[in-house]
């Protein structure tokens, strides 16, 4: 579970652009690229669906 949370934290930091180069290198050594990509895709889909839901809610009212 700690591995997943650490990878999630790394992906979120990368999404917001606040991750240092040193931390990025350490994350790629600690986590597999496939787990980082999978988490990034899931977070992107969740973000896109939440934006879509907000737009539908605003347009319908």
TrEMBL record:
The protein, known as: DUF2970 domain-containing protein
Membrane-traversing stretches: 36-59
Entry keywords, A to Z: Membrane, Transmembrane, Transmembrane helix
InterPro entries recorded: DUF2970
